Amino acid sequence: xxxxxxxxxxxxxxxxxxxxxxxxxxxxxxxxxxxxxxxxxxxxxxxxxxxxxxxxxxxxxxxxxxxxxxxxxxxxxxxxxxxxxxxxxxxxxxxxxxxxxxxxxxxxxxxxxxxxxxxxxxxxxxxxxxxxxxxxxxxxxxxxxxxxxxxxxxxxxxxxxxxxxxxxxxxxxxxxxxxxxxxxxxxxxxxxxxxxxxxxxxxxxxxxxxxxxxxxxxxxxxxxxxxxxxxxxxxxxxxxxxxxxxxxxxxxxxxxxxxxxxxxxxxxxxxxxxxxxxxxxxxxxxxxxxxxxxxxxxxxxxxxxxxxxxxxxxxxxxxxxxxx
Length: 324
Description:
The chain has 2 domains: 6-203 and 294-322, TIM Barrel (Alpha-Beta Barrel), CATH 3.20.20; 216-274, no CATH class. Helix content is 45%, strand content 14%. It has helices spanning 6-11, 28-36, 50-59, 71-74, 79-86, 100-108, 120-129, 150-161, 175-183, 193-196, 205-213, 224-228, 245-250, 254-259, 261-274, 297-322; strands spanning 17-19, 42-44, 66-70, 92-95, 113-117, 133-137, 143-145, 166-169, 189-191, 219-222, 238-242.
């Protein structure tokens, strides 16, 4: 069977899977690999450094890719948005901030806009702003997000913004997750942590190894890695990451960390540079239990699609048998 949805039709892709635009992980090579396998790769523009973004766009070559932005950071460094529009991306994704001005500019260039949200109220606001698609991100997701669980959030958002298509994010790392998202009313899935552990990702090999070895119970939502990196993320957003020695020392002790920030920030910078992940952050979601190896992005995507097709077909057979 072929999984064709409103997402695949609108973005002209073969499979309903998007690469989450993970900062410093989803570079041009990974985005291109996902797109060439039939999904859509999104470069993670992170904190909107135009020089970094230009390099990663070049690395994507002629692949049809998109770019994802942290909206509050983009408002401070809009040159990255101008650069992206000049490259005629397949889509733009906006997360964590008021998208209105950027939605209008992208749509004026006929670029589809995806807005990521963490609540039903945010979904309604994004739809009213003109978003072409809504990404409903549950708290199971790696990296920054909020508290709602994916399983309950997807159908609530789908009901609230219909007929705007909804894409599920958070805790999806295999075909079972994709199949579940489709049954809950999503038109596809945005996948992050599973592609962090792809051969083509920009993630450090030691970080990928920690993801493969980790379990969902090893993750936590925290602000300590933002504090030590001097990144002022707005409430209510926290980052889900793998627990490590640094988190065990400072999580819940943020005022004390702030008081020692000059010393701790210097130590942290050295750790991040050297790949010491008992101190440096590895943002990862609860679905790490399902990741057993580093693999090529194309293989990951094709396996996920095949599993989803099998799960959906098996479910239909079970229902048919039960109805006899």
